[in-house]
């Protein structure tokens, strides 16, 4: 793992160079820094062992589907083989498999390119609102809290990354809501659960457009609490509707309760508090200081600005609401383990939230970004590696290192 952590550090430094206007103003230099940063982590993903430690989805459908694609002469033949294997896979994911299989039959190359696609989407999402983020924390949080999850969630990771990009487009310029919505709709072609992303998009849009933002936030949070508390009853009454469909897996409770609920909630509480404090802070981050906050009324008011971006306090409110919803929905995975995929859509915003916090509080506490890195590292080892079958093993990487030495 030491070589992996070193690769992560180099990748995060390169992303920092790509995001920063002070380090370099050349777009060509920025592009190549970003490209190399993404390529590094994509290679790490591609050379992993393709067994249970590299993600259960790899064994369940990842390897079989790519093998079908590599051995099919036409796309129609490929789809027929997948259906004959009794797999209900979204067309977007099938298309990626088929296109890659046209020039290679090596699954390691395929998983490397898949990781490249996911990382590129997340990189692009961060780049659009880079002025409000700490780039090193943004990329490090992605690598330490989400990256390894993508090994196990092949289709859903693409969808979640697209949802992240869609919201980022909305935050960067609310006038591009149609483009943002189209990205959300496209995400559904990679995983059916991406309809949750539409809900996230609507929440973000309402918080941006509404004049009573705090009331909208309150209604959304209360609604999430009601949903979480009553989800068991709703799930039991309507589970029969999902039988014989692609959602059937979510009605099974045979997977156990999954990760430690208490530890997961405890990890999220400090960041929820910090996002709230960030929202209340009167110190703006230029150039997005286009909002004022009335402490007595708790309302947001727009101030004329040359920037098309939403203000930092609206951004803080959006990240706060998303983080709260994730924490509130954690208990539903006790009903059926596969249901953990629902709050995971909200958890995919961690790179945004944590790097936003790091940017806001860095001047008050210089070691604050370091503290977030420590939290990220603990999350990786306690909640990702500690509570799942995921581990990183690479015979290919080990053999390369052995030959080099």
Outline of the structure:
This protein has helices spanning 2-19, 27-46, 56-70, 75-84, 91-101, 107-128, 135-145, 149-152, 154-172, 177-187, 195-209, 213-238, 261-280, 312-329, 341-347, 350-361, 368-384, 395-404; strands at 291-294, 299-302. It has 405 residues and is an all-alpha fold. The chain has a two-stranded antiparallel sheet.
Calculate the mean pLDDT score and round it: 81
Largest sheet strand order:
1-2
Number of distinct helices: 18
Q: What is the succession of H and E elements?
A: HHHHHHHHHHHHHEEHHHHH
Distance between the termini: 17 Å
Overall outline: globular
* Poorly predicted regions: 253-259, 284-308
Q: What proportion of the residues form beta strands (DSSP E)?
A: under 5%
How much helix, percentage-wise, in residues? 55-70%
Count of domains: 1
Taking Cα atoms only, what radius of gyration do you get, to the nearest Å? 21 Å
Structural class: mainly alpha
**DSSP strand tally:** 2
Largest sheet: 2 strands, antiparallel
What does this 3D model show about the protein?
- The chain has 405 residues and is mostly helical.
- It has one domain.
- It is built from 18 helices and two strands.
- It has helices spanning 2-19, 27-46, 56-70, 75-84, 91-101, 107-128, 135-145, 149-152, 154-172, 177-187, 195-209, 213-238, 261-280, 312-329, 341-347, 350-361, 368-384, 395-404, and strands spanning 291-294, 299-302.
- The protein has a two-stranded antiparallel ribbon.
- The model is unreliable at 253-259 and 284-308 (pLDDT under 50).
- The chain crosses the membrane at residues 6-24, 31-50, 109-129, 178-204, 216-235, 255-277, 314-336, 342-358, 365-385.
């Amino acid at each position: 793992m030491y070589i992996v952590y070193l690769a992560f550090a180099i990748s995060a430094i390169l992303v920092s160079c790509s995001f920063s206007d002070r380090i370099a103003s050349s777009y060509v230099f920025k592009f190549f820094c970003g490209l190399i940063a993404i390529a590094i982590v994509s290679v790490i993903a591609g050379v992993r062992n393709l067994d249970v430690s590299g993600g259960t989805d790899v064994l369940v459908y990842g390897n079989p589907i790519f093998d079908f694609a590599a051995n099919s002469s036409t796309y129609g033949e490929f789809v027929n083989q997948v259906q004959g294997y009794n797999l209900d896979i979204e067309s977007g994911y099938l298309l990626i498999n088929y296109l890659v299989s046209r020039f290679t039959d090596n699954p390691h190359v395929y998983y490397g390119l898949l990781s490249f696609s996911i990382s590129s989407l997340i990189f692009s999402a961060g780049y659009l609102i880079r002025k409000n983020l700490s780039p090193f924390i943004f990329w490090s949080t992605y690598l330490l809290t989400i990256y390894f999850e993508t090994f196990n969630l092949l289709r859903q990771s693409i969808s979640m990354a697209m949802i992240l990009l869609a919201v980022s487009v909305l935050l960067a310029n609310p006038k591009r809501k149609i483009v943002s919505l189209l990205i959300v709709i496209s995400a559904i072609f990679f995983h059916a659960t991406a309809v949750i992303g539409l809900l996230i998009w609507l929440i973000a849009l309402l918080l941006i457009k509404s004049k009573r933002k705090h009331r909208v936030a309150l209604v959304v949070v209360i609604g999430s609490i009601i949903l979480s508390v009553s989800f068991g009853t709703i799930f039991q009454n309507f589970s029969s509707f999902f039988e014989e469909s692609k959602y059937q897996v979510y009605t099974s409770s045979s997977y156990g309760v999954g990760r430690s609920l208490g530890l997961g909630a405890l990890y999220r509480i400090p960041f929820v508090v910090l996002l709230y404090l960030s929202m209340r802070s009167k110190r703006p981050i230029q150039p997005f200081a286009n909002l004022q906050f009335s402490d007595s009324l708790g309302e947001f008011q727009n101030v004329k600005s040359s920037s098309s971006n939403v203000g930092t306090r609206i951004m803080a409110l959006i990240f706060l609401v998303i983080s709260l919803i994730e924490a509130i929905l954690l208990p539903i995975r006790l009903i059926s383990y596969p249901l953990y995929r629902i709050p995971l859509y909200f958890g995919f915003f961690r790179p945004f939230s944590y790097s936003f916090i790091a940017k806001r509080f860095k001047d008050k506490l210089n070691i604050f970004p370091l503290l977030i890195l420590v939290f990220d590292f603990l999350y990786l080892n306690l909640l990702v590696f500690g509570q799942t079958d995921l581990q990183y093993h690479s015979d290919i990487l080990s053999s390369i290192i052995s030959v080099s030495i």
